[in-house]
Amino acid sequence: MASLIATAIMKSPNVGESLSGIFGSVSLTAWICLLLPQLITNYRAKSADALSMKFLFIWLLGDVANLSGALCTDLAPTTIALASYFCFADLVLISQCSYYNAINARRRSRSTERRRHASTATQDTDATAVSDVTEATEHAPLLRSDSIGLPGSHRRHSMRRRESTLDPLTRVFTGEDDTPDPSPWLHNAVSLVAVWAVGTAGWLVTYKMGAWDMDDSPAGDGVVAAEPVAVLGMVLGYFSALCYLCARIPQIIKNYQEKSCEGLALLFFLLSLTGNFTYGGSVIAYSQEKDYVIRALPWLIGSLGTMLEDSVIFVQFRLYSPERRQAKTTGVA
């Protein structure tokens, strides 16, 4: 998505270009930090059940198309490096999710097999054996709820079961305290303020270092080279935008089906919203010329369209929050 941000730092800035540079720097900061909250959340829960793998794979496909477009159109090295980072970060998150999914699937399979054997044993043993099996199964009520509970219940039970096995000091040290965060939106807002501060400071540092005093060049002005390359770049840009727009749909459907967002990092989607918003602002602030906007259109569609889908996920976070679920259970309005 950052295919046009780098063009803003290739010449002495006016007001619009300065604003574009600040937005672009904030966007880069948000994208670099994007996956960290979800990686940490998965690690703490030792589970990735909350994430849709379709979401991650389609997102990776969009980032690969974005990188291919950057390479084909010979964009600035910083742009290519950032697009490469996107692909690498996607692969890290996919690898982590695949690992936890495989581990937990084997664990659930072994648990199901043990219950099956226990059930068979009760049919062929005397009353004493039946009593022993009953006593053994009393220690695994949460495992049984994984297969017969409500949608999303296995995710909540597995997270709580892991928390319960940790001593209080370990929970505090690792941040896995089972006490719910009373103000998650406030704490995440503080994190976003930090992203804005770091991004703005990064732009100021590059300005003081003279990065904005470089002479204009054809590549810096974003001049389109050969016509076939330009067409290929636009095709890849629109394909990348389509992937970004489609990626959120499986995650939204999964949240709706399970009536839960537990296990998803709210900051992950807030950083995505910030990165898309500042990227769009950077592109528009840099230039409002028709030709420039047309060339930037696929990336703008991908960014602004994804913001709408992220807004749907924010509504799901609110609707499926533990507090709201508890209020419905207790009958409190």
Q: Give the C-alpha Rg.
A: 25 Å
Enumerate how many helices there are, as a single number: 13
Number of strands: 0
Estimated structural class: mainly alpha
Quick one: biggest sheet?
A: none
Shape: elongated
Number of domains: 1
Secondary-structure element order, as H and E?
A: HHHHHHHHHHHHH
Distance between the termini: 43 Å
**Percentage of residues in strands:** under 5%
Let me know the average pLDDT.
76
- The helix content, as a percent range, equals over 70%
Weakly predicted, low-confidence segments:
5-10, 140-149, 161-178, 214-225
Brief description of this entry?
By secondary structure, the protein is mostly helical. It has one domain (5-330). Helices cover 76% and strands 0% of the residues.
Description:
- With about 325 residues, the protein is mainly α.
- It has one domain (about 5-330).
- The chain has helices spanning about 15-35, 35-45, 55-70, 75-125, 125-135, 140-150, 155-165, 170-175, 185-210, 225-260, 265-285, 290-320, 320-330.
- The two termini are about 45 Å apart.
- The model is unreliable at about 5-10, about 140-150, about 160-180 and about 215-225 (pLDDT under 50).
Task: Considering the chains and any ligands shown, give keywords for the structure.
LAAT-1; transmembrane helix; mainly alpha; single chain; 333 residues; elongated; PQ-loop-domain-containing protein; 76% helix
Per-chain topology:
Layout: H1 15-33, H2 36-45, H3 53-72, H4 77-124, H5 127-137, H6 141-148, H7 153-164, H8 168-174, H9 184-208, H10 227-258, H11 266-286, H12 290-319, H13 322-330
